[in-house]
From TrEMBL:
<dbReference type="InterPro" id="IPR032508">
    <property type="entry name" value="FecR_C"/>
</dbReference>
<dbReference type="Pfam" id="PF04773">
    <property type="entry name" value="FecR"/>
</dbReference>
<dbReference type="GO" id="GO:0016989">
    <property type="term" value="F:sigma factor antagonist activity"/>
</dbReference>
<dbReference type="InterPro" id="IPR006860">
    <property type="entry name" value="FecR"/>
</dbReference>
<feature type="transmembrane region" description="Helical">
    <location>
        <begin position="92"/>
        <end position="111"/>
    </location>
</feature>
<feature type="domain" description="Protein FecR C-terminal">
    <location>
        <begin position="260"/>
        <end position="328"/>
    </location>
</feature>
<feature type="domain" description="FecR protein">
    <location>
        <begin position="119"/>
        <end position="214"/>
    </location>
</feature>
<keyword id="KW-0472">Membrane</keyword>
<dbReference type="InterPro" id="IPR012373">
    <property type="entry name" value="Ferrdict_sens_TM"/>
</dbReference>
<keyword id="KW-1133">Transmembrane helix</keyword>
<dbReference type="Pfam" id="PF16344">
    <property type="entry name" value="FecR_C"/>
</dbReference>
<keyword id="KW-0812">Transmembrane</keyword>
<protein>
    <recommendedName>
        <fullName>FecR family protein</fullName>
    </recommendedName>
</protein>
Length: 333
């Protein structure tokens, strides 16, 4: 399966645009059950975003009709030329035309691509501090990527796109230029502040440490933005399409910057989710394992085995680790 196949699939486009709940549910489940295609899906999403021309974009049916008209024209031209042009020359002309079409399509993609050449990436289990061109700093957690806009200077809006988790320390500029973090579902706009953003598994979580930020939904940009205060957590779920807010201890959500994992009343699946998303482990959990939210503790990110031992003792579990695969099940009675 290739990204080109996905962007021609009507149901995948419906999932991307969140226009059909049934297709959304279908594709969300498929992506979760087929992690080996995650990169392919990400590339397809990137292509769809690059080609999304908003109100003037052709519909999927219009695209199919245009493609069919093009292919019919090519076939007719080939039939008309059978007795006039040697086959090798005919193919050369056809491929020349196809190459021109491809180059034009590539040019459109390039012009519509909002990202600049600067990208910051971390591997599984790695956290790293990056200094942005304006002097702001971002610390990326494992398995994360930050992309900068093509235009980046103090006189214009500073825009970045985040996949994964990042802690931002945004520098205030003399011109009060805006700083916007985009995730798949939410836009976070700030002037000068410190906050944590995590975008994983159809959820975006924002924790504000200091300053002010406002959040707006990608799916409903005309809605009134939600203003956050320090010590608040706001979560957006792609399933409910709602923003929920609560007060939290911000330190718990930013401890990973200091090489720590902090858990307060966490469930086994929440712990497993962090190990899988941030550290690249393949987690298998037996269906009979407890779902209680009662796991607490502070652990070093360099001592995953200590965490697994504590988890095993807290819930009386049999936890086996084989390289990057972790299996969690109840101990036999």
């Amino acid at each position: 399966m290739r990204p080109e196949d996905l962007i021609q699939d009507e149901t995948f486009i419906a999932w991307f645009r969140k226009s059909d709940p049934e297709h959304e549910k279908q594709w969300t489940a498929w992506i979760q059950n087929n992690p080996e295609f995650r990169q392919t899906v990400n590339e397809a999403v990137f292509l769809l975003k690059a080609l999304d021309l908003k109100d003037v974009a052709p519909s999927y049916q219009d695209t199919l009709k245009a493609r069919n008209r093009l292919m019919n024209s090519v076939n007719k031209w080939e039939n008309d030329q059978k007795n006039l042009i040697p086959i090798y020359r005919k193919r050369s002309i056809w491929w020349a035309a196809a190459s021109i079409i491809f180059l034009l399509a590539t040019a459109v993609l390039w012009m519509k691509n909002p990202f600049g050449p600067q990208r910051y990436i971390t591997e599984a289990g790695e956290s790293k501090v990056f200094r942005l061109p304006d002097g702001s700093e971002v610390t990326l957690n494992g398995n994360s990527e930050l992309k900068l806009a093509n235009s980046w200077n103090e006189a214009t809006t500073r825009e970045v796109w985040l996949e994964g988790e990042g802690y931002f320390s945004v520098r205030h500029t003399r011109t009060d230029s805006r700083f916007i973090v985009h995730t798949n579902d939410v836009n976070i706009e700030v002037l000068g502040t410190e906050f944590n953003v995590k975008q994983r598994s159809e959820k975006t979580t924002v924790v504000l440490k200091s300053g002010k930020v406002q959040l707006s939904k990608q799916a409903d940009p005309s809605a009134r933005p939600l203003m956050m205060k320090p010590g608040e957590l706001v979560e957006y779920s792609a399933d409910s399409r709602q923003l929920t807010r609560k007060e939290v201890n911000a330190t718990q959500y930013t401890a990973w910057k200091e090489g720590k994992l902090v858990f307060e009343d966490a469930s086994i699946r929440e712990v497993a989710g962090i190990l899988q998303q941030d550290y690249g482990f393949d987690i298998v959990i037996d269906g009979n394992v407890s779902t209680a939210n009662e796991f607490n503790g502070v652990f070093s990110t360099n001592s995953i085995d200590v965490l697994l031992t504590a988890l095993s003792r807290a819930y009386d579990l049999d936890i086996q680790r084989n390289d990057t695969k972790i299996t969690i099940r109840n101990k036999p009675e």
